[in-house]
Amino acid sequence: HTVDLCHWAAELDHTQPVEYEPEGTNVGPYKVHCKYANGVKLVMRDDGWDGALKTGSCSFRIDGDLGWVETGDLTKIECSDNIRPLLRPTEAASLALANHVVDFIKCIRTRQTPRASAAAAANSHIACHAAFIAYQRGKKLEWDPDKRQFTNDDVANNMRSRALREPWRI
């Protein structure tokens, strides 16, 4: 869910990173540096952000040239001092969830795509799986978002799926 929020904030719902570079060893903590085709960088990690800002279990942080912003599923927002005057009040987490449900029901009736689309969710999940494969391989991997495969590692490509047990098929 966190990567989905990052994709939304960076207007990257339509794609996945093109590079995944793990930091350290594959025994933890988990940390992978990702880079998108447009140069945007994403860090996936399992040990939270330095300073423990208590923004929720799905927190994410955006660092830019003019400062930083961090938020999460508790809807609390922390940021650098120069950005604070630009903040607007946020809705409660329960209201945000209700808005997702209302949007989904509206889209069923109108045949429009919901704000939280299946394609956006798929791209976020693919990014997470690709990052974990890079972490398991312990090396930088390059990814083709259109072909949905690694371009520099056959072993990593083999890790994208498993043989199904009989009689199961897809």
What does this structure look like?
The protein has 170 residues and is α+β, with helices and mostly antiparallel strands. It has one domain (2-90, 117-158). Helices cover 30% and strands 19% of the residues. It contains 4 helices and 8 strands; from the N terminus they run H-E-E-E-E-E-E-H-H-E-E-H. The chain has a 5-stranded antiparallel beta sheet with strand order 3-2-1-7-8.
Topology:
Elements (H helix, E strand, L loop, with lengths): L1 H8 L9 E4 L8 E5 L5 E5 L14 E5 L2 E5 L5 E3 L13 H18 L7 H20 L3 E4 L4 E2 L3 H5 L12
Antiparallel strand pairs: 1-2, 1-7, 2-3, 4-5, 5-6, 7-8
Helix pairs in contact: 1-3
User: Segments where pLDDT lies below 50 for 5+ residues?
Assistant: none
Q: Rg to the nearest angstrom?
A: 18 Å
How many separate structural domains?
1
Strand share of the residues? 15-25%
Report helical residue fraction. Answer: 25-40%
Strand order of the largest sheet: 3-2-1-7-8
Number of strands: 8
Biggest beta sheet attributes:
5 strands, antiparallel
Q: What average pLDDT do the residues reach? A: 85
Structural class comes to: alpha+beta
Report the order of strands and helices. Answer: HEEEEEEHHEEH
Distance between the termini: 25 Å
- DSSP helix count? 4
The global form is globular
What brief labels describe this structure?
three-stranded antiparallel β-sheet, globular, 170 residues, 8 strands, alpha+beta, five-stranded antiparallel β-sheet
What is the compact description of this entry?
The chain is an alpha+beta fold and 170 residues long. The protein has one domain (2-90, 117-158). It has four helices and eight strands, in the order αββββββααββα.
